[in-house]
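Consider the following assembly input.
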Amino acid sequence: MTQALNYPMPSEDADNRAFLTAWREEGKLLLQKAAPDGRPFFYPRPICPYTGSADLVSVPASGKGRIVSYALVLRPNHPAFNDDVPIILAEIELEEGASLLGRIICEEASSVASGLDVELLPPADAKRYPLPTFRLQTSGDE
Amino acid sequence: MNKDSQIGIIGYGATAYEKKTDRTLFSFLTEAGRAALDSAGLSFSDVDGLAICSFELPPDNTVTAAEQFGMSLSWAYLGTAGSAGPVASIINAVHAIESGQATTVLCIAGDNYDVGGHYKLMDNFSRGLRNYGTPQGFGGANGLFAIIQRKHMETYGTRIEDLGRISVGQRNSARQNDRALLRGPMSIDDYVNSRMIADPIRLYDCVLPCAGAEAVVVTSLDRAEPGKGVRVVTGYERHNHPTMEIAPLRGGWETFADRLYDDAGYGPSDMDFVQLYDDYPIMAAIQFEDLGFCRKGEVSQYLADNTFDWAGSVPLNTGGGQLSCGQAGIAGGMLSVTEAVRQLRGEGGGRQVANAKRGLVAGYGMVGYGHGLSASTIILETTR
């Protein structure tokens, strides 16, 4: 496994274990929602922030979404990221309606723009990153 | 708080700000507290209520601080709203006095860390940010507020050179404040051309983390020396609003702005100065919108049409604000209060706003998963 970089890791607990495991082992992004048909939300928590329900189910997201806005971080908070700058950190609205903060991996930071479509990295690449991480969607199918 | 309440701030004080320090947090907190009490003509033994706002205080709290200070208290308050906390602590101090839980409240805010300490703080700010921000190299607050600023620029056409008028105006005022850590001249060109930190956030959008503390004494105004009391007219706070938005273009002030001005009987254009929370110019700009100084989405033109130093058309953060004084952690949310009191007592020296009678002070803080969760505002009036 190529966890090549010493990125700071999320601390795993009963609320986020399924989410972290799905990403780490399958490159999937799990969203929680109130059973059966609640609005999906991120980040993981013990109750639905829309309804207060503790009857939650986890569903895999398509991994596709849209950049709402973004930052090009030149001065990361942690030295493990110093060689990665600029870190492309985006507010991403997923197809399922939930929003999250996600890193976008893109060699040419200037090609990133608000409104562009993104998708999860392929599972093989996903293992390098502690959390669901994205790339720009290419125009055709890959 | 009660209408026509005669409770207010009768003393204020601060420590010098230091970029690096060996001094302890309690040393800063007690120095600011003593200075505020000296200015009120009171001593620690006169105080029966204590409010502390400090990121660095844990594992201590207000009660263990009282042990350190040797105080016996009937009311203790610990800020939970980041740098919206100091303004909130004053609101709650007034309520405590009105309800008889305390007669004299010392409100202190302070921290003692440097730039490295600031990043560590942000990495561990909350479980949400620690687990879902830190592992992505989110760049601390700079990365998050860059997302908000870009969205504001792309949604409303907000211009960099207009946002810069906030930093530049405040720097002009800081040049009249020998306590400000950053006092060199700054032009709009300097601002626009300053180094990019988290595009579109530039160096001159950012505060300098430092160590220091600020404090005020809240009690009945009849205990003030003549003309030295500052009335707390009204105040409100709001937390986690709007819910479930990562990068909202409003911060919660809009939920209580109408009540604030209804209580006061006058509005934003009647303020002689404003002290807004200036962690970034974009957030001060959003406060101008949310607090009704201009319409939502129109702040760029408002900034272009006004000047913001102490002698400007809208005196803003008249001591230079955090952008020029430095940000001593949560003290940044009290710096605005002490400066407002200074102005309303006519003690502004070379940066005194002429005839300052009314001022608005806003707080903001507690960065969550994407943005500051807490907003607070008070309106203050002179008794001169």
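The longest helix of chain B spans residues 140-156. Ask yourself how this observation constrains the way the partners meet.
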